[in-house]
Amino acid sequence: MKASQIQQEYRSYLVLKNYRPLTIKAYSNTINRFLQFCIINKQGQKSAQDYAKSYLLKRFNHGNSWSTVNMDYSALIILFRHILKLEWSYDFVPRPRALKKLPQVLSVKQIEKMINGINNLKHKSIVLLLYSTGIRSSELVNLDIADICLDRSQLHVRLGKGGRDRIVQIPTITLEFIKAYLWKYNPKQFLFEGQTKHTRYSASSIRNIIVRALHKQGSQLKVNPHALRHSYATHHIMNGTDLISLQKQMGHNNIKTTISYIHLCPSVVQQIKHPIEKMEINKPLTKLSVTS
Description:
Layout (H helix, E strand, L loop, with lengths): L2 H14 L4 H20 L7 H14 L4 H18 L24 H9 L4 H13 L3 H5 L6 E2 L4 E4 L8 E4 L2 H14 L17 H14 L9 H13 L4 H8 L4 H5 L6 H5 L16 H5 L1
C-alpha cells in the first residue's frame, strides 16, 4: 500500500473503533512520522520491525520521554497488526517500562494564594473549576454550558478518559464564581470560549494562566494543569474523603490509581493507629531485668 492509503486506512480503523479524537490525532501523527522515517531511511531489505525499532530508538534519543515513546509503541502495534497484517515481536521490540515518577502536587497554601492572586474572573473560574473538581484540562475545554447543572451543583463530564461519562460535584464557592462568570461573559455554547466566539478554550492557554498565577506569587515552578488534579486528589485524602467517592469523582477506572495518592499524604501515614498499641503484651526481658 502507498503511504497515503496506509494513513487513510489507519485513521478509518481508529474512527470505527471509537477512539477519542485526541487519541486519533496523536496516533495518526505518529504513523505519519513513522512512514516518513521509513521513506528517508530506506535501506536494503530491512524488515518492517527493524524500521519500527530504529524509529522508537530515534524518538527517545532525540529527547522524547518514555511515556511519549510508549504512546508511539501503541500506535505502531495497531499499524502492524490491524492495517499491515504483520506480526509484532515483543522480544525483538519490547515495550518501554513505565517510570514511577511522583506527580507534582501543590500545597493548600500555594493553591489558595494562586487563586486569590488571579484578578480576571474567567481565568479564576477556570483554575477554581480545575482544582475543586479534579477534572482534566482536556475535559474542561470540552465542556458545554449544558454540562453544568447549577440547581444540583453538578458537572457532567462527557467522554472523559477511556470514553466514560461521569458526574462531578461542584463546591459552593466554585459555583458562585461560575454563576458570576456566566452572567458577565454570557457564553453561547461552550462553557469557556476562546478569543473567537464559538470556539473552545485551548489547553495551552490554561497552562499559561497557571504558570503566570504562580509566578505572580514568586514561585518559579513549571506546573502544568494536571498538577491541580494531583493536588485535588492529595488534599481530599488528607481531608478524609473516602477513596471510593474520590475514585468516582476523578473517573479512575481502577481504584489502585486513586490509592497511589496516599503515598503523597504524610498526614495520613501519621494518623495510622496500630491496634497492637491497645494490647497488653508482656515486655521482653532486658539485661537489666534479668540482673535484678
